[in-house]
Each structure stands twice: as structure tokens, then as C-alpha cells.
Amino acid sequence: DRARFSVPDGLSVEWDGAAAILTFTKKPLHLCILGRARIKVTSGEIEILGHRLDNSTKAVEIESPGWTSAITIDSQKVDTTLKVNSIRQQETERTFQILNPLQDSVRPTMIPSSWKSAIDAVLEDLTKSSNKPDEESERTKTRNARIFVCGAKHVGKSTCIRYAVNRLLSSSSFPAVALLDCDTGQPEMSPPGMLTLTIITTPLLSPPHHHMVMGEGSLISTYHTEACFYGHTTSKADPSLFLQCINKLLESYVHVVADKHGGDESKLPLLINTDGWVKGMGFEILSAALDSIQPNHVIQLLGEVRSKLFDLTEVLKDKATRLHKAHSYRNSSVIHDSSISVAPVAAVQSSMYRSLRLCTYFLGSPGIWDRIEFGQHGIADYDCEIGTTLASMKPYAVPMDNIQYGTIRGVDKPSDLGSEDMVLDALNASIVGLCQSEIGDSSQGPNNTCISCVGLGLIRSIDRDRRFFYILTPVPFATLQSVNVIVGGSIQIPTECLYRGIYSESFYYMSCDGISVGIGGEFMKSRNTLMRKSSSL
Fold first, then answer.
1. Secondary structure of residue 272 in the 3-state scheme
2. CB 37: neighbour CB atoms within 10 A?
3. What does the DSSP 8-state code read for residue 465?
4. Separation between Cα atoms, residue 100 and residue 536, nearest integer Å
5. What's the confidence (pLDDT) of residue 323?
6. Which is nearest to 407 in space by CA: 232, 194, 247?
7. Considering only CA atoms, which of 365, 414, 363 is closest in space to residue 392?
8. How far apart are CA 199 and CA 175, in angstroms?
9. What's residue 341's pLDDT?
10. Residue 314: phi, psi to the nearest 5?
11. Which of 110, 348, 517, 518 is most buried by a 10 A CB count?
12. 3 state DSSP class of 266
């Protein structure tokens, strides 16, 4: 609200309908944006999450929802002027708020100084490599542009990845960046359950559900350069398959560099996003991934507690890899600028983020979140709008006899689960991978091997008499022509995707996490958030 906005010293604001013209008369100055807006710099220079804009750069769109840290504009020069426009069909309706982090109750996205130092060192090294004569850089062509970002859960890896992508794209040396996304639970550019390689040419200025690849509704890229269906949301489900997928995506990156850049990786830097499992077997998987990828830069985000600390010294010993240790986002975002009062952000569970991504993906657009709230308690879809929308969408009718199908544990081998009816029961009303078999003989399906994937599908129903699958997916029809395998995994369908009308309250084959508590057995889980008596005094 305009009346509530407290204009900081050094800023003038002029409203023009649903747009605002901001003029910074001093630097540095921080300003937060909540909502959705299009920003164009007319004079001077600003930085948004590592992406630098001046009057020569085109306008960018940002998405800054209230349940996460607010997008922050940092002025870089005195007398900087920019115009902030609303993004809505009705031009008179404002879709953003301007907030002063010095006074308003908001948590700004403040990049830790240790992150800036790490990316500065990476950029200096990559720029130096890309500017070398061909004969000097020949020996470093295969490993001189791979940046590996790792850390425990909730240390800011996703924010760090977006910041690194934006910093690289802002450099004149790198018009594009490759992102190898190994986080199957909280991926940056895809729905859960996939490992992907994506070429990015546009800055990431929104949460993952807003800019992930989802067909024609995608804002950043409409397709992945390569993708593998993993079928789980954690690497511990099948470490061997997980590492196979990483190696396959790495090979694809090498082929792209060879075809388009003559094998010179410094022309297309590779960023690697990882999950937050860094203890026990998770550390072994992380170490194996480092051995396969052989990065020349590792950015390690360190948490505050022992469970979020791990030592990479032995793993990186005898490797030509520079290790950059940086603070976690939560630990350092409030200490480098003591003048800014940071409002707390309610914790959102990982499962809720997964539901947000999956719902957005199958709807094919993030537009529905203008009407449905998301926050600490997940998706507040009281009128079942998501389920109703999906129920009204036309599915693809896929002949069962023209494709292979099964679960991630055995494709086209019903005997592994029993009868074919049991396989179809497992696939009905489930999330599946839409895959492309690389095996010449279509009668032989892959079993526990990495398989290329064009996206996810939601099996709405199965007609066993006419032998048809009815599948909802945002993947374009032209891309679906190459799909010859449907693979089921363990990705839980969000309840919000189901139509809960008066005749549809009993759902088809579903599992509920935690249902075994008190009445059966389940894997023991760590409770690292519990306060001990000694620490609570």
C-alpha cells in the first residue's frame, strides 16, 4: 500500500497508475519488491540477485511471493532511475509492493559477502581461461568451467545457484550457462523426480516453480538439453541409478560443448546443483559425484550446527579443484548490514514445496497462484480449483500396446510385481516419467538403468478393455511423439491435484507419510530440531 511505504532517504518515488518511477540519489541503497513486476532501468545501474541492469539491458520480470525472502534491488550508481510496471491484463491493477527493509516488516534477499567473494574468484578464473589463446588453453578445455555447489539442507543452495547463474550471465564473457540439477527433491529447473541438464540464457529472478521447464508455459526454457527419470525425491532411494544419471547428463554436456564450442568449456560454464544429504551414505554419494564431475571450483555452504558441517579435504586431495567455503544464507544474511532489521520467514516443509512444483507443472503455468494462497501451511485450495482444473483438461490417449510400461524397478516385466493387473494398479492415478528407450529392440525394456525423459505425466485413468492410458502432461505434443516408455516411480501425487467432490472422496491407491506411527513400523528418522535439556536451559 502506498500509504504504508516508508520512503528511505536517498530515494524518490513517482507513481504513474499501476507503475512506479524510482530515482536513487545515493548508493548503496536497498529496496524490496513483493509481488510480480517488470523492471526497466532508464539510467544508472542496479543489481538484482546478482544480475546487473543498466539502460542498455532489456526489461526483466521478477516474481517475489510473500512466503520467501523478498527480491531486493541494490543501487550501484548515483542518479539511477528505473520504472517498475505491474504485470496484469488490467493496466490499472498494481501487482507489486515496494518495501523499505530498514523499517517495513520484510526479509530482504541479502547476498552474503562470502558468496560474492567465491563467485568473484570463479569469474576471475573462468574469464582468464576464456581469454587465453587456443594453444594455451588446450590442456584445460575439459575441466576449466565446472562449478559444484554443495551444502546441507536449508543453507541456501538454491539461492546461491540463482545468484551464480545471474552473475555469470551478467558477465559479457558468458551469454549462456549450463545447469546440471542433481537435486531430485527440490530441483531448480524441473519438477521432482528428475535429473536435468538445462542451458540458461535468462536470469533467474523468481522461485523455482515459476521458472522451471514446463512446456509452452515455461518462462526460461521450453525444454531440457537432456533429462533422466529417477522416480524418487532423494538420492538414497537408489544411489547407483542416481550416479548413472549424473554421468549421462555430464556426457551430454561434453557433447554440447564439443558441437557448439569446439570442446572449450570456458564458453559454456557448468553449474552443478546438489541435494542436502551430506552425512553417512549421502557424503559417499556426494564424493562419488565429485569424482565423476571433476569440477575445478567447489562452493561449500557451511551451516551453523554439527549436522550441517562436513569436510571435503580428503575428497578433494590430489585434485585440481579450488574449494571456496562460504557461510549459509540464514547465518550470514543478517550480519553484514546491521542497519537492516530482518523479519522472520515462516518455515515451509520440503514436501509442501514439492507439491507446489508438481501442481504448477501439471497445470502448465504458475498463473493459478494469483488466486490460491501458498505459505507455511502449504497450498490453501479450499475450493478444489487445482483438482477441478486438472479434471477439466483433455488427456492424451496412449495405446498400451504401442509403448512399454512398468515401474522404475522393472519396465515391461509384470512378473516382477505379479500380474499385469497389479502393474496397472500401481500406475493408475500416479505420476510417471515419459521416457525414450535407447534400446533398439522395443520388446526389451530397461531395468534399473538410466533412461532419457522428456517430462512427467499424470495417469488420469486406464481403460483396460480398450487398452488405453489417459495421461495429463504439459509436454508439447511434438515432443511426445518420441516417447515409447512410461515408467512409474515413488513420487507422491499431491492431494490438491485430486478432484475432491461429493462423489470423489475415496482416492485410488495412495500412501500417507507417517500413517504407520503408533500402529506399525517405519524407517527411523532423525529429529535434529528437538531441543535437549542441556541446550534449552
1. strand
2. 27
3. T
4. 35
5. 95
6. 232
7. 363
8. 10
9. 47
10. -70, -35
11. 110
12. helix
Separation between Cα atoms, residue 211 and residue 225, nearest integer Å:
16
CA quadruple 433, 349, 365, 180: dihedral sign: negative
3 state SS of 429: coil
User: Given the C-alpha cell 557448439, which residue does it identify?
Assistant: 260
**Under a CB-based contact definition with an 8 Å cutoff, are residues 308 and 155 in contact?**
yes
Nearest to 194 by CA among 453, 494, 483: 453
Other C-beta atoms lying within 10 Å of the C-beta of residue 15:
11
494 preceded by cis ω (within 30°)? no
Question: What pLDDT sits at residue 534?
Answer: 52
Cβ-based neighbours of 521, under 8 Å, separated by 6 or more: none
Give me 426's grid cell: 500401481
Please identify every stretch of the chain with a pLDDT value under 50, giving residue numbers as ranges. Answer: 1-3, 137, 139-143, 331-343, 410-417, 440-446, 505, 514-523, 527, 529-531, 535-537
Cα 34 from Cα 345, distance rounded (Å): 14
Q: Return d(Cα 167, Cα 121) in angstroms, integer.
A: 12
What integer pLDDT is reported at residue 89 of this predicted model?
57
* Closest listed residue to residue 384, CA positions, set 300, 272, 465, 499: 499
Element (H, E) at 398: strand 396-399
CA distance 393 to 32: 38
Helix then strand then coil, % of the chain, to nearest 5: 30, 25, 45
The model's pTM: 0.88
d(C-alpha 194, C-alpha 230), whole Å = 5
Pairing outcome for strands 146-151 and 270-273: parallel
For the chain, the farthest-separated pair of C-alpha atoms sits apart, in whole angstroms, at 73
Residue 74 grid coordinates: 541494490
Contacts of 321 (CB under 8 A, 6+ apart): 290, 294, 295, 296, 297, 298
Q: Which run of H or of E encompasses 228?
A: strand 226-229
CB neighbours of residue 151 within 10 Å: 24
- Cβ–Cβ < 8 Å for 156, 304: no
Report the C-alpha gap between 164 and 184 in whole angstroms: 20
As a whole number of angstroms, the distance between CA 126 and CA 373 comes to 42
The whole-angstrom separation of Cα 510 and Cα 467 is: 23
pLDDT of residue 499: 67
Per the DSSP assignment, residues forming a β-bridge with 114 are none
Length in residues, the chain: 537
Q: How far is it, in rounded angstroms, from Cα 514 to Cα 529?
A: 18
* Contacts of 214 by beta carbon, 8 Å cutoff, 6+ apart: 191, 360, 361, 364, 365, 455, 474
**Please, are residues 39 and 48 in contact by the beta-carbon 8 Å criterion?**
yes
Between CA 385 and CA 401 the distance in angstroms is 34
Q: Say what the pLDDT of residue 140 is.
A: 44
DSSP 8-state code for residue 519: T
